[in-house]
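Annotated sample (chain length 500).
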Amino acid sequence: MNTTNMIAKRDGLYNTVIVLFSFIILFFFTCLEANAQKRKKDSPNIILIFMDDMGYGDLSSYGGKGYSTPNIDELAAQGMRFTNFYSAQAICSASRAGILTGCYPNRIGIPGAIFPNSKVGLNSAEETIPEVLKKKGYATSMVGKWHLGDAKEFLPLQHGFDEFFGLPYSNDMWPVPYGGGSITKYTSWKKKMPLLPLIEGNKTIEHIEDMIEMDELTTRYTEKSVSFIEQHKKDPFFLYFAHSMPHVPLAVSDKFKGKSEQGLYGDVMMEIDWSVGQIMKVLEKNKLTDNTLIIFTSDNGPWLNFGNHAGSAGGLREGKQTSFEGGQREPCIMRWPGVISKGSISNKLSCTIDLLPTFAAITKIPLADRKIDGVNILPILKGDKNVNPRNQLYYYYNDNALEGVREGDWKLILPHKYRSYEGEQPANDGYMGKKHNAEIGLSLYDLRRDPGERYDVKEQNPKVVKSLLKLAEEARKELGDGLTGRKGEHRREPGRIETK
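Output written by the structure step:
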């Protein structure tokens, strides 16, 4: 073989090796990219924005008037809007216990609203959303209103959150009278309230002493949330952003004061919409939009007797602190590009307690061996029209009172007493108006035709009543019922501080 042939053969072999090596490198990086995409799909960032006392009719996309919420509306246009979505219970602490644990709040011993210096809080034995997600390396942050116990052992860092910045309870739990003003020797329950602590981590960093300082809360919460996203843009993260607004006392920064036709309430809603816009912008800036699931909803309905400082139940009956639709049915918007179809609507029955098992299904993380009440609604998010993960809902209130049950579109109200807003003239400008004691007997409503719960149709539907009474009995056996003296077989204790 002459020299020329040898060189040609050598060069041909060299070129073959180069091509083969390039193919191997390309295949390697293709596999890496495929694995990275799979990791993203299985570990999306999750942002849960939780409002306080926002009603079903308080967003533009749900009929809100006198102000606009363009950023939240854009979320709805890019994602899914729910029409049959419920809070776990129609009051602060209970609803928050439900959303974080996937349980009816009365199952885990958290009724009502926990007051400052309480000896009771969320039990550390309950598995929370951040504790689930940390199994897969998520960074976790809680910003805003906690309200599951203000003792150190009950605060967010002891329940799976890496960071916490916010208030330990509602912003009206301070010694400032309704309607604003200075700290005073108030003659009501507020007289016993401590100063309002702003906490970072486990430590109080300052106290909010007047409405001027309260005005900056939404902005400060938003800045802290944006900072967390920037810091963890390369990690999967979970942000639980629980606004203190629009719970009274309403507070808004100067940049939104006087901007709406609706007065202060509208100004507050506009600032919250701005806050959502800031979250959307930081995601877009860091190319995180397509890999982030955003959920926007509320803890319970509007506190109607505050008049122009309260929201709208959107034509639903009653509001906060009742088991009627105005108390528990909430707006809910979810956006997750590539999974949730743009501009879609779900009329399926869903609840905040369904979020934890849904997140577990998305991330393929096994849950603890501890009974919960939520169901996986991921098929709804994916647009499967044939699924119906949840067909039943229990309406509990107060300590453990079963006030209603729902199956499909039928809702049976069980006899109970309640505080009603109807027929009362609400107060305005931050002051609390009257409610009155009311009582309702056994009543049946077809929520498809009558979401306002105005027409009792039990006489025409005895079989439906019988079926729902059976469902109520199942609830009583499982979770008890204070109205009928049932304790329930599977309730658990809250966390308690033992006193010596």
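Annotation: Residues 27 and 204 are 53 Å apart (CA to CA).
Annotation: The chain has eleven helices and 19 strands.
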